[in-house]
Amino acid sequence: MAEHALGRSKNFCGLKSKVKFDFTTVRTRVIPILKRVEVGDYPAKIGRVYGWSKQHVSYYLKKLQKAGLVRRKVRSRAVFYELTERGQNFLSRCEGVVFGSGVYRLHKCQVRFGVVAEGLLPADFRRVEMTNWTALLGLEQGVHVRRTSRSWIVHVETLYGRHPGELFTLAKNLADRVARSLMQKYGCRLTEGEVCRGYELAVDDPVAQLLSRYFTVSTGKRKMDHSPGEDEGEIDHLSRDAAVEYLQMPERLKGLEGKVDALASNLEDVRRLEDKVDSLAAELHELFSALRQLTQAPLLPDDIVNRKNMSYMA
Question: Which of these, 66, 88, 94, 68, lies nearest to 6 by C-alpha position?
């Protein structure tokens, strides 16, 4: 799809100065960066999510800006980028799908790595005394981490995306990179990471935003967020399957609407058939009445009857 979007020349045409990208670069750099820009990530965060340096991301963002796919914006001395209309069209053609209106937000996500072999303990981490043990809190590759008595826990920063599966993949990849860095730096050996319970996977929903002003609604799979600020009016999904189910709801609704339309069409056919049956019944009634009249004996005059009786007597 990306090749079709770019054309044979591998250029973004339409500008006086064409910007060239290799097809492989489009798949591995351009489209991933555009997808993160679409949901509002800044360059440093894009780098942390994909494991690239900030300079690496900035290099491609400058090329994308020159190609007219993104525009640079400064907010409170922080540099952000946003998609232009041309960039949105390009990303839609590359993806081959029309994204839904909701943007998912994965937050409070923690990935736990059990300690198989002890290594050095970080000296510059903040020590927090717990009941029977001491936790160490610090940063690794710009990500918050916590050392407990039996594990390292990576606190993944809030991620935004169009699909819950994509967010969990990004979170796991980010945590794995941090874990490898911890093993290399402190000489420890860790188990495979597992996502801890307690994460929140939310999506903006205008209906939920309206209802949350008046009602408290929750089910075993999801709940409405009533906290003020950014989270207000979101639907918090309590599991990944619940989020996927919610994501599939528009398609299921379309399928249900199609079934209702088919049922309405069938009922209309039944109604027309009933009209034909009523018309046929009326015609049969008239036919039976005519047959009944034909089978009845005609009434003869009295003199004809008398003559017949006399002839029988003779």
Answer: 94
Instruction: State the CATH number of the domain containing residue 32.
Output: 1.10.10.10
- Looking at per-residue confidence, does 58 or 217 come out higher? 58
Residue 6's pLDDT is what? 43
In a domain, 69, yes or no: yes
d(CA 40, CA 83): 9
Instruction: Judge contact between 12 and 6, C-beta under 8 A.
Output: yes
- Residue 54 falls inside a structural domain: yes
3-state secondary structure of 291: helix
Residue 270 has pLDDT above 70, yes or no: yes
Which of 24-38, 76-90, 250-264 comes out lowest in average pLDDT? 250-264
Judged by DSSP in three states, 233 sits in: coil
CB 156 within 8 A of CB 174: yes
Amino acid occupying residue 224? M
| Mean pLDDT score across all residues of the chain | 78
In a domain, 217, yes or no: no
C-alpha to C-alpha distances, 75 to 49, 81, 84, 88, nearest whole angstrom: 21, 10, 17, 22
Distance of CA 30 to CAs 20, 50, 254, Å? Answer: 11, 12, 33
β-strands 70-75, 78-83: how paired?
A: antiparallel
Question: Which residues face 222 on adjacent strands?
Answer: 237
3-state secondary structure of 215: coil
| Tally of domains in the chain | 1
Cα separation of the two ends of the chain = 111
Contact 173, 109 (CB under 8 A): no
pLDDT at 283 over 90: no
Q: Which domain holds residue 85?
A: 2-95
Contact 245, 162 (CB under 8 A): no
In a domain, 87, yes or no: yes
